[in-house]
Amino acid sequence: MKLSRSLIAISAIATLSIGVLAGCSPASNDGGGDSGSSAAALTIAKPDGAITTESHNPYLGDSSASKYGYAKVIFEPLALVNPTGDLATTPWLAESVEWNDDYTELTVVPRSGVNWSDGEPFTGEDIVFTFDQFLNGKLTDAQGLNYQGATVDGDKITLKFGDSKYTAQARVLHTPIVPKHIWESIEDPNTDPLTEEGLAVGTGPYALSSWTTESVTLTANDDYWGGELAVPELHYVSYGDNAALTTALASGEADWAQAFIPQIEDSYLSADEDNQFLVSPTAGAGTLFFNLQTKPFNNPALREALAWTIDREAYVDIAREGASEPVWNVTGLGTLLEDEILPEYQEENYSVDVDKAKQILTDAGYTWKSDKLIDPDGEAVSFSISVPAGWSDWNTEQALIAEELDEALGIEVKVDQPDWGGWDAARQEGTFQAIIHWLEDTGNVYGLYTSTMDPKWIVDDKAQYNFGRFDDPAVTEALNTYANASTDEDRAAASAVLQTAFAENVPAIPLGAHPLLGEFNTRNYVGWPSEDDQYASGDPTQPGIVQVLTQLESK
């Protein structure tokens, strides 16, 4: 994968031997001995403040197991879909996974020799039971799986769905599998916290040992099907904010986290040569969305001119401090999906070309008066960009765009930083002018195009994506075809329509890859994912954490 120079530089910095700052020498690891000990625990940290209510239910987004992330090392999925690197699918609790042509049926072979952490054998009945909870209504289908039932043929289980899951494969494959012999007695799995003795049972590499509001401890599963684990114990903790988390990571009090850390070289990397930072690009992107229904963005010429003016390298280098990759292609697709770009667009990239932007505007009837851009109706062009206060990287990008467009095109850009609630209401109701937002990451081209051009996201006049309310019947048909196609040829044809529509209409401007971030140290363990081997991301909140933990070896 081709990386921007800023990413390469950060990776190089992370591997250099850097002098330890005075007063920041690493502390010994609380859970397992001194630095270098093969018995050291790993402390996995978040900046979410105190998590006060105990709940080990993997299906509840507000459970402590979900908030801390430890559900993922207890309850395992059928397979792991890598959101970065080669975007590959790795069978996990299933020995094999295979979709039919239109992705409405998934055939799996349960892995043999697996036991639940209470010693009971894992079987295909557990897989069927897990999904049947959605069918019989016992468990809410929060992921929209539309599961229709299962058939069993020898050691093969076929799970059937009411629509194509091509764009939602990870949602199916990452469903936590739970033990039938325990969950069939749980009256309401939508609310049960699983705090009674013997309920938090999984097949995962670690089992719950103790829970307090300060720390959750899990110990290695000695009977884990994946083999012996180098790390004997995991501690999950949550700090009050990013600053406290950064201090804990720099000092060695915490070992592993995912966070955007401003001035990461000074505040974290330079504190210890073993401190590492991994940026894992995904198919999603930080994206500038426009309200296409009102001035000034109802004119495609203005949108195209902005695409030739906004500096994506500045977004990466300054706003994201290197933790991203710029997206320049006119299709909006980044490097992970560059092989999917149509031949005619492979070399069609935006750049900062103010003369070209001005010519586009002039041809569309725009003029300048006292260095201010005037639209064809005779009105000065101005707009606001809205991002919640405290989102430091995107707040910086707001200022960058305001400066770039004022100097280059004479556009006044007002920086709006409301609280999250006000921002959320405006993006849903369409009362904003421009916002920076993420995309639905489906691991393929569909994610960008459904996020920016799909009317399905507008329900009761509120938008969950497609905030600009783009609506073109031909594009909608292509989106539906892509999502439900039974052949690669049909998907490719639909993708061609989508790429062309995006390039011609410029409904939004992807700025840079929206990556998964991971901070970790190599004092006690090696085998972590790296820029050269992104077998998983370095983000401990992702399902791939189980894959990382099985790869770690004592130093």
Automatic annotation (TrEMBL):
Gene3D superfamilies named in the record: Dipeptide-binding Protein, Domain 1, Dipeptide-binding Protein, Domain 3, Periplasmic binding protein-like II
Keyword Chaperone in annotation: no
Pfam family, one: SBP_bac_5
Assigned keywords, A-Z: Signal
Entry keyword annotation includes Signal: yes
CDD domains (alphabetical): PBP2_TmCBP_oligosaccharides_like
Record-linked InterPro entries: Peptide/Ni-bd, SBP_5, SBP_5_dom
Membrane-spanning parts: none
SUPFAM superfamilies documented for this protein: Periplasmic binding protein-like II
Signal peptide residue numbers: 1-22
Domain Solute-binding protein family: start-end pairs: 90-449
Name used for this protein in its record: Peptide/nickel transport system substrate-binding protein
Organism: Microbacterium murale
